[in-house]
Write a structure and sequence with these properties.
single chain, 116 residues, mainly alpha, 5 helices
């Protein structure tokens, strides 16, 4: 008779996720934020759909949490300024009103496609 595998295995690899190094996360986040900001700066009109703009605004706001406060705030302000220039100020305001969902703490991972 076949025995079904345990639904909740207790191996160390599953029980203890690898701690994320904040500096390596900063290295992953900076290029993604730079791409979004560059796309917005290069555009003469909104390059994304309204839904995609809201998603980018929210993701940008939260991914920036991995950065030091001065850098985080400067990048957020630059992105908001670009969204306002493109007529998407409401999307920027909506992201700023949301509570930060990602904190720069060990054990929190960003999805690989977060900036797409």
């Amino acid at each position: 008779m076949n025995r079904q595998p345990d639904l909740f295995p207790t191996t160390a690899a599953i029980d203890a996720p690898a701690a994320l190094d904040p500096e390596s996360m900063r290295a992953r986040v900076r290029p993604r934020l730079a791409v979004l900001l560059a796309e917005a700066r290069a555009a003469t009109e909104n390059p994304w759909t309204a839904e995609r703009t809201r998603v980018h605004a929210h993701i940008f706001h939260n991914m920036a949490n991995w950065l030091p406060a001065v850098e985080r705030d400067a990048l957020r302000a630059a992105f908001v300024a670009e969204l306002i220039r493109l007529g998407q100020g409401e999307a920027a305001n909506a992201a700023r009103r949301q509570p930060d969902r990602v904190k720069a703490t060990p054990g929190v991972s960003l999805p690989a496609n977060a900036a797409e």
